[in-house]
Design a protein that fits this description.
With about 325 residues, the protein is of the alpha/beta class. It folds into two domains: about 10-135 and about 275-300, Rossmann fold; about 140-275, Rossmann fold, CATH 3.40.50. About 40% of the residues lie in helices and about 20% in strands. The chain is built from eleven helices and twelve strands. The longest helix has 16 residues, at about 50-65. Residues about 1-35 have low confidence and may be disordered. Belongs to the bacterial solute-binding protein 2 family.
Length: about 325
């Protein structure tokens, strides 16, 4: 699980195998019969509610289509861990792979090598420097999500002030786009000052340290945009430790169980929820279309829902929350 921060060796990653457990970081198996299309899903990271939700929907879509789907992911969102996982999957000879690349550059060659063996590739959530290697790329409108996060902060802190972005690491296509959408929106409103982007490397503890240090330097910060689940978790901890819950408004990206708890507790004021289930369903649909020589959509963007304490228990909010298991 991602909550364990131990870095596995390449050998240990390869030894993960294909254990049957939906969304567990092993693999879930569809129930197709003889001759069924064999698909694989390589998650950005195992144990993340976003990818679990995507996997659950992908498993259902594959099963409905009579295909089989196995799922694996590294223990951290890191190309050095994802590469051996992908290589292990490729060696099992699936017909198509859904993959969330953990770096736009570092994963380019490993994914190209998969396609050179005749495997169809569909990019889900994240992308590559050159996505043309894939049959289709499916992701949220991440720049739009970043702008929506700033709109939420404006509602929460309408008098303006300093705002900070806590992101994952440079080179992740989705979070880079979220940060860009947010910063572009900040620059267009002279009431707000952009303090830039700092990177937590997907470690909640580091995100907490970033926010604590930022508040020591700029105690008048009014808003923090955390671009993913773990950045939001750590940012919330940093604000709480500084005793600034009433002053600093946090908008997080993603709606996993920890973020929803923080929302209910009032530490995080709004969440930008993606549609990982829709991404998973479309990923299966496009992979099967490519395998069956049917029309394939090269690029698909999915939307998002802003979840607040006002709507989290209403149907709109409930339907947007991520799953911790299938």
């Amino acid at each position: 699980m991602i909550r364990h921060k131990t870095v596995l060796s390449a050998v240990a990653v390869l030894a993960l195998g294909f254990t049957a457990a939906c969304g567990s970081g092993g693999s879930g198996g569809g129930s197709g019969g003889a001759g069924a299309h064999r698909l694989a899903f390589v998650q950005g990271v195992a144990g993340d509610a976003f990818y679990i939700t995507m996997d659950c929907a992908a498993q259902s879509a594959a099963k409905a289509a009579g295909a089989t789907l196995t799922t694996q992911g590294g223990q951290k969102f890191d190309p050095t861990m994802q590469t051996p996982v992908l290589q292990s999957v490729v060696s099992s000879r699936p017909e198509a792979i859904l993959i969330a690349p953990t770096d736009v550059s570092a994963m380019q060659k490993p994914i190209e090598q998969a396609t050179q063996q005749g495997i169809k590739v569909v990019l889900v959530d994240t992308t590559l420097r050159d996505p043309s290697v894939a049959a289709s790329a499916i992701a949220s409108d991440n720049e739009g999500g970043g702008k929506a996060a700033f709109d939420a902060i404006k509602q929460l802190a309408p008098n303006g002030g300093k705002v900070l972005v806590v992101s994952v690491q440079p080179g992740v296509s989705t979070t880079d786009a979220r940060a860009k959408g947010f910063q572009d929106a900040v620059k267009a409103d002279p009431r707000y000052t952009d303090l830039g982007v700092q990177y937590s490397m997907n470690e909640p503890q580091k995100a907490a340290q970033i926010v604590t240090a930022a508040l020591q330097k700029d105690p008048d910060i009014v808003g923090v945009f955390a671009t993913n689940l773990f950045s939001a978790e750590g940012s919330a901890t940093g604000v709480r430790q500084a005793g600034k819950q009433d002053q600093v408004k946090i908008v997080g990206f993603d709606a996993g169980p920890d973020q929803v708890k923080a929302l209910r507790d009032g530490t995080v004021q709004a969440l930008v929820a993606q549609q990982p289930g829709k991404i998973g369903e479309e990923g299966i649909k496009q992979a099967l279309a490519a395998l069956n020589n049917q029309p394939v959509t090269a690029k698909i963007q999915t939307g998002f829902t802003i979840v607040t304490r006002d709507n989290v228990d209403k149907p709109e909010g409930q339907s947007a929350l991520y799953k911790s298991s299938c």
